[in-house]
Amino acid sequence: MATVITHAIAAGALSIIAPSALPRARLALTLAILSAAPDVDVIGFHFGIAYGDQLGHRGFTHPILFAAITAFVAPFIAFPRLPRLSRTWWTLVGLLFVATVSHGILDAFTDAGLGIGFFIPFDDTRYFAPWRPLATSPLDIGAFINGPAGRILINELTWVGLPLAGFLGLWHFIRWRRGR
């Protein structure tokens, strides 16, 4: 898996394209939390759920269906005053969906594991991207910190952080040009 840091930063950056009616800080925090939420499935290991099961790691909390459900439920919790079914509400739902589904997409680019169950519960097949440049982070925080933390973070900076910075720079440049 990619680190929670990379998941959160990549999704939180989506807040810059949101309508101004949405509070940026709350939106960025919500996007970051939802992007990391799929890894809640690691608690299954403590209950004897195998990695490859539908409820295992990269299983039920990583598919498109989970992202869609999460995107529709989260506005009621994080943005309760936002008018339902308004254009801003639908934009928020879309951003929340992208943030949540981005977790599985990033994980599909990692170099280890069993793949991502994008279509669970309808199909148990696990998928990887055809190109997998991201180093997989250990699930255990102690193993991460005492092991490959630096190498993994540099790898993620190279393959996710720098392209994201380029996108954000381009986005700001386009907005600046339009404002002139």
**Major sheet:** none
Instruction: State the end-to-end distance.
Output: 42 Å
What is the gyration radius calculated from CA atoms? 17 Å
Mean pLDDT: 93
Helix content: 40-55%
Shape category: globular
Number of strands: 0
Order of helices and strands: HHHHHH
What can you tell me about this protein's structure?
- The protein has helices at 4-12, 24-36, 64-78, 87-108, 141-145, 149-179.
- It is an all-alpha fold and 180 residues long.
- Helix 1 (4-12) packs antiparallel against helix 2 (24-36) and helix 2 (24-36) runs parallel beside helix 4 (87-108).
- The termini are far apart.
- The relative contact order is 0.16.
- The model has no long low-confidence stretch (mean pLDDT 93).
